Amino acid sequence: MIIGIDDTDSNDGMCTTYLGALLLDELQAYGTLETLPLLIRLNPTIPYKTRGNAAVALKIRTDCPEKVTAHVVSRIEELAHMECEKTNPGVVFIPENDYDRLKPVLGNFFEKAVKDVIEIQEAKTLISELGIPSKGFKNGRGLIGSLAACGAMLNLEAWDHTFEYLAYRQKESWGTPREVEKESFFEADRKTYPGTWDTVDLKSRQVVCVPHSGDPVLFGIRGENPAIVAEAASLIRAEPIERFAVYRTNQGTDMHLLSVTSFAEIQDMHSYRLEGTVQAIPRTITGGHVIFPIRDEEGNEIDCAAFEPTKNFRLLIRKLRPGDKVELSGSVSSRTLNIEKIEIKTLTPLYKEENPICPNCGKHMKSSGRAQGFRCKKCGTHAVSKITCEIKRDLVAGLYEAPPCARRHLAKPLVREQKSNVNIFPAR
User: If one looks up domain 257-347+393-425 in CATH, what number appears?
Assistant: First the structure.
């Protein structure tokens, strides 16, 4: 049986991954967990999400599916923040004899849930038409993520993945300040990077893998395999934990990005990889956000933004100039692309006019007066006009990313990039 669960948390607390970790232990009374649990990030632009828009899936071999179903539903009813308006849990159960039948359709649903916008009714209709056991609470929006997580579990071979080690606080500590030794996270990063990433932000000296909300998570270590995230976690010095779980996840994969042939196809609440030409010098607006337009080959334009939370990334963006060729990745809202990564493909040459240089003395000549040309003060050499010189750009073509402190869950960190023909500059 595969179990998909979503939307049990709120902005104030709880976490669907905690429920998944709890069930990992408790469901062993009814059978055997067959693989690592899944943590699936869905479309990051959806406005209905609580925090990270994540669903979980578990796979269990059991002889008593009715007991498993009853236990899971009971735990959701007990732990989900039902009092929160935005919390609308959903749970889906896929019997083993339906795996082959449901694999293609739920695989497509999973991909759509990451890249597109799905309405609740679409999920409910699919459940009804396919006869999938499920339970929705309140408006049942969590059924979307639950179906998607099941689709991911049925199609493990079809999608890129990473891993996350999640440590959970003891229940009496929930909602209180987390007690962690900051330096131990930097130590873990030094010893396990590049196998792990987004543990710390070196430039801002921030620990970025420790949440600040009232949820049960103490910290989360992201990395390339279960062994390396466990090694990093073992180096962390912090308050006692209640439990931990290692999730297989689509985080850090760029799975959310779509490609388009024309900017005219771009829609809000979707994420894209766009190639175009910078049209204006980036400008800084109220709030410290940096905005500039790019244009495609058809003449369509879209604004792109490095928002204030991206910090020093904005210094890079401010160096762009009209004519630069770029490829940008990010999510679109209000017809503006929130930049996650930028590949600067070519830099347009920039020029300036300056006084000519004396061929004898090597010094810049001085103006002899209006329309009278230029003269070397030392040797008297004359020149008719100014000369045009190319300006050296304080920018190198290559691939850049927003810093760890502003990284989206789904954004692939550059440490995972395999491009050999591009300069890569991971943010640390």
Answer: 2.40.50.1010
Question: Cis (ω within 30 of 0) for the bond into 194?
Answer: yes
Residue 13 has pLDDT above 80, yes or no: yes
Instruction: Write the CA distances from 256 to 32, 89, 154, 251, 386, integer angstroms.
Output: 32, 23, 19, 10, 52
Structure confidence at residue 44 (pLDDT)? 95
Specify the CATH number for 2-158; select among 3.30.450.40, 3.30.70.2200, 3.30.565.10, 3.40.50.1820: 3.30.70.2200
State mean pLDDT over 106-120: 97
Considering the segment(s) 162-249 as one domain, its CATH architecture is Alpha-Beta Complex (3.90)
Burial class (CB in 10 A: 0-12, 13-18, 19+), 371: exposed
Which pair of structure tokens corresponds to residue 172?
A: 């009496």
Q: CA separation (Å) from 14 to 6, 10, 134, 165, 384? A: 12, 6, 22, 17, 76
- Written as six digits, the tokens of 83 are 């009092």
Q: Which residues 6+ apart lie within 8 Å of 121 measured at CB?
A: none
Work out the pLDDT band at 93, boundaries 50, 70, 90.
very high
Distance CA(125)–CA(302), nearest Å, equals 36
Residue 77: what pLDDT?
Answer: 96
Amino acid at 290: V
Q: How far apart are CA 160 and CA 257, in angstroms?
A: 13
Half-sphere exposure of 249 (CA within 13 A, CB side): 31
How far apart (Å, rounded) are the C-alpha atoms in residues 262 and 301? 10
pTM of the model: 0.92
Identify each DSSP E strand in 63-133 by its residue range.
90-94
- Token match 């001085």: residue? 366
Predicted confidence at residue 257, as pLDDT, reads: 98
- Over residues 199-216, the pLDDT tens digits come to 999 999 999 999 998 899
